[in-house]
Amino acid sequence: MTDEVQHDQSSFARAEHDFGRVRRRAWYRDVLAKLAGRSNQLLSYESVKRSLKLGGPIYRGVKTVPVAQIVGSVDRYRDFDDVFLPKQDNSAPRWKSIARAFYSDVDLPPVRLYQVGDAYFVMDGHHRVSVAREQGVDFIDAEVQEVISRVPVSADLKAEDLKILHEYRRFLERTRLDEIRPGQLIRFTVAGGYQQIIEHIATHRYYMQLEQQREVSDAEAVADWYDAVYLPLVEVIRANNVLADFPGRTESDLYLWIVEHLYFLRETAKHTSLEEAAEDYADQYSEKSLKRLMRGFTQAFANQDEMPLEVVKAEQAREKFLTETHLAERRPDQNILCTSDLDYQKLRDHIKKHRYYMGLDLERNVSEEEAVMHWYDEVYQPIVKAIRGHDLRSQFPNKTETELYLSIVKYLDELRRVEGEVSVAAATVDYAVQFKQHPIKKILSGVLSVLMGSEPTRSDGVAPTHGASTADHNSDTGN
């Protein structure tokens, strides 16, 4: 037997063995993903294109690309998992052929990729990428077409990042902050932050116009908010190294949380400074394991009659909401209850929007009292009845009916943007299916929280509350 024949047989055997191994690994990873209640599907280029509103590609020629930065596929994202392990047995012939070529040092043509920021998506060459990753190859030759994105896209892009990036793109389209302040670095780790920023800018513009007694343009308000409101607080965050107490968070996350905390503190101490608010927030809500442990000891041995700050804030916000809306008087059986003070502001925003659309429909001015009662009877209560009818509280035991109402309204708006008319009942059922936390996932989340010292996230993907929560889009189901 010649050396060449022996080498061919060896390459064939190794390729057979390798494919069996990667298929087993793909199966194990798929089982673990299902147990953990998450997806391990390869990222779809089309979903990225829709979310980021990408334009036409620009040809960049052939270049060397890091294999680790290839994160998705144009049309075969169901055939491979998120680390390019083959999920189908019918991939065997092609995969083994590429593996034999690798062992025989046969040159293969470059793969064809789309580039979006620092991430790459395969048009042609999925098996070559899969084999390269399995063999520990760091770089691969690729024919690249770059697609320009208005928002930055990192090499570790995940499907769960797309919602935030979609919000970021819409934020930039609306405010043009990237054009007005090219060096801006507003980034959030949880959804909803950009909508809150838009509300901050709108409020800032309103006060600018009152103070200056003139019309203030959108661009002028955006620039002044960024320079006079956002950056000063970010500088305080940096100067006091507050970000070190919140691993994995961003300066923009902290900006929102500290602004809300400052508002709360100034209700009792009007002259509270930014520095004092930032320091107090870090002391109260630090996510560092040691500080969290010490805070737990402090709360455990503190006066049992002393309620945590977030509970006090929520109760004060509820009393204020019921006083302003007179709901407790006019609807004595009202059941509105939230565990975050910010959720009551969301309810006020819903009522404000409902009042506006009522005025349009009735072609007259609608009083606030009339809007509150109509919102409660025609919007809030029907959703609460659907929540009770489908027993959602048993599926989301950590959420009140009001918090479920807010989540379902937000989800309903998203469904209607994509699918058109969707009923409240259908949205309620679909929300339960989409976000119900799998029992095994709960167990795994609890175990991880003990082993890693982290707080389990809520089943709908919202970050743990730190005196502030992610803002739902202002929405209303009555129109």
Characterise the protein shown here:
The protein is α/β, with parallel strands linked by helices. Helices cover 58% and strands 7% of the residues. The chain has 19 helices and 6 strands. The protein has helices at 3-36, 45-52, 92-103, 126-134, 162-175, 177-180, 193-212, 218-239, 251-266, 274-285, 289-301, 309-325, 327-330, 341-362, 368-389, 392-395, 401-419, 424-435, 439-452, and strands spanning 43-44, 58-66, 70-73, 111-116, 119-124, 139-146. The chain has a 6-stranded mixed beta sheet with strand order 1-3-5-4-6-2. α12 (309-325) runs parallel beside α14 and α17 packs across α18. The termini are far apart.
Care to give the gist of this entry?
The protein is built from 19 helices and 6 strands.
Percentage of residues assigned to helices: 55-70%
Mean pLDDT: 81
Order of helices and strands: HEHEEHEEHEHHHHHHHHHHHHHHH
Main β-sheet, spatial strand arrangement: 1-3-5-4-6-2
CATH superfamily of the largest domain: Conserved hypothetical protein from pyrococcus furiosus pfu- 392566-001, ParB domain
CATH architecture of the largest domain: Alpha-Beta Complex
**Rg, please?**
27 Å
Just give the CATH class of the largest domain. Answer: Alpha Beta
Spans where pLDDT lies below 50 across 5 or more residues: 289-295, 297-302, 437-479
- Tally of alpha and pi helices: 19
